[in-house]
Amino acid sequence: MRLLVLGGTAWLGGQVVRYALGQGHEVTCLARGESGSVPGGATLVTGDRTRPDAYRPLVDTRWDLVVDLSRQPGQVRSALEALADRSERWVFVSSGSVYADHSRPGAGLETPLLPALEGDESSPETYGEGKVACEEACRSARGGDVLLARSGLIAGYGDSSDRLGYWPGRYALAQEDGGPVLVPERIDRPAQFLDVTDLAAWIVDAGLRGVTGAVDAYGPLRVLSDVLAAARETAGFTGEEVPVSDEALRSAGVDEYMGPRSLSLWLADPEWAGFSARDTASAGAAGVVARDLAATMRDALAWERELGLARTGRKAGLDRADELAIIEDARS
User: Fold this and answer.
1) Could you give the residue ranges of the DSSP H alpha helices within 143-290?
2) What is the pTM of this model?
């Protein structure tokens, strides 16, 4: 098949390209090329999607599948205007951030969406609203003949968010330095994610099969204790864990889930109780398949080792010295 990936040089896009190439498909990527090179075997068409001439080299080809990973409504609209009639199938990679309510565990596609962003450019603060506008553009151009792949947390090798990888990386570092590991006191809360290789494979396969409509492309329902157990085993950690309460973590100024000086995947705010506990019915019906948790952990730890287990300034998680200071305060 002939695939066009609008992107393909960043993390998920690159995995989509690699999987498609591995299946014997012919892959072209439209990208500025600033996030890296395309995987070997793919054709790169260099173009800036904010410019009206970006799609000119692509409009004379008939595409079996277009995969768009943009978060900018203006880019999505311009791609559809140029290529919607030149593609048999279309996948837009959206996000669970489109939902207006994250408080209810087990919620599904019936959850109300945020209002669509007005304008062509979203920011990190309007990411969800921007993705809603992108989805609306897809439906306007192609009706029901589009797959809206709403992804949740993506994990695995190459993850730049530092989220899942924090845990096997931290256990491995603690095993080396002999110190304890800080963990949340409540480890019965949800922790849901999908390996990047599984998501990429599904995007290609489902797109080519003609799966359409919105799908919550989330991984299995798990709780944090599952994640910690797998991370400990993967890292070979035999030391001490120190559980710290929600109240003590908040008092120490630790943020939830992600961001600098956070505790990765920890979610105590009831308004976000369903963020990592979405219903998997639409994923199962659409053929999303998740690999074994241990395999994802091994890949995540390999990536953490490449980046440096003791690195500071993480995008999610605590620096080691900060973690040990919080543990000391919690013990006193």
Assistant:
1) 166-177, 196-209, 224-235, 246-251, 281-286
2) 0.96
